[in-house]
Amino acid sequence: MDVKTLVHYLGKELESIGHEYESREILENLFNQDISYLYAHDDLQVGQKTLCRLEEVIKARKSGQPLAYIFNKRSFFGRTFYVNPSVLIPRLETEFSVQELLKLSGDSFLELGIGSGCVSITMKLERPNLSVDGVDISDQAIQVANLNAKSHLAQTHFFKSNLFQEVSHSYDLIYSNPPYIRTEDMEILEDEVKKYEPHIALNGGEDGLDFYKKIIKDTPNYLNKTGYLVLEIGYNQKEEIFSLLEEVNFTGKCIQDYAGYDRVIIATRRK
């Protein structure tokens, strides 16, 4: 089979599950070549090993497994990060959060719930003089984050902690994208999220606010006087989180993402 025939075959297979738009990503990962190269050399013969891998990929994708887990990687802020089912797949919305974080001043940064480490590592790489710490309750997530830090030569400090429990310093910037899906809504998530991504990183309790309540309650003890608390939120949680901030004498503003949804809250102490 040549590349041209393979491309046609893959397109038909993906079309059967409504995912034909993923063809480019699969081909580039399969051949480790840019798509333009493949189209320019579509008469090349495809080896048996590649054909077998293609069938594995198609089978996994038809079962609902996300491409990021099939190939164990996802692009974030122009860099490639290793991911596996022990961490959430980085989202475009979180790139928006990073853009907002980078606008804020500060010398020290703490992320609560690092997952793959993509946010903390990006912050360090974009601002090399920033001191970056990150915590997670999952040993597996910390392993993934450390692997990514090593591959990107990012000098970050990741350690195990249930939110602030093992944190002993204060910071200029504290960021979290905590679990915020309401428990009753977990069942209506898309299958590829519900079946494959870690529920510990998705389920925010009965009202979706469990982690925000804990984070906001303890933040005054760990945020420097002129520091910023930055939270990624669900599209309909702004007012409830503003109320939680009021309880600790904080004030915040909400910024909408690329799609026009409430996405990032930036909070500070009231003056």
Layout of SSEs?
Blueprint: H1 3-15, H2 23-31, H3 35-40, H4 48-62, H5 67-70, E1 74-76, E2 79-81, H6 92-101, E3 108-112, H7 118-126, E4 131-136, H8 139-151, E5 157-160, E6 171-176, H9 191-194, H10 210-218, E7 223-232, H11 238-247, E8 250-256, E9 262-269
Parallel strand pairs: 3-4, 3-6, 4-5, 6-7
Antiparallel strand pairs: 1-2, 7-9, 8-9
Helix pairs in contact: 10-11
Would you summarize the structure shown here?
The protein is of the alpha/beta class.
Distance between the termini: 69 Å
CATH H-level superfamily title of the largest domain: Vaccinia Virus protein VP39
CATH class term of the largest domain: Alpha Beta
Spatially, the strands of the biggest sheet line up as 5-4-3-6-7-9-8
Low-pLDDT parts are none
Which topology of the largest domain does CATH recognise?
Answer: Rossmann fold
In terms of quaternary structure, the protein is single chain
Number of strands: 9
The secondary-structure class comes to alpha/beta
What percentage of the residues does DSSP assign to strands (E)? 15-25%
Q: What is the helix/strand order?
A: HHHHHEEHEHEHEEHHEHEE
CATH architecture name of the largest domain = 3-Layer(aba) Sandwich
Mean pLDDT: 95
- Number of H- or I-type helical stretches: 11
Largest sheet entry: 7 strands, mixed
Shape: elongated
Question: Radius of gyration from the CA trace?
Answer: 21 Å
Helix coverage percent: 25-40%
- Count structural domains: 2
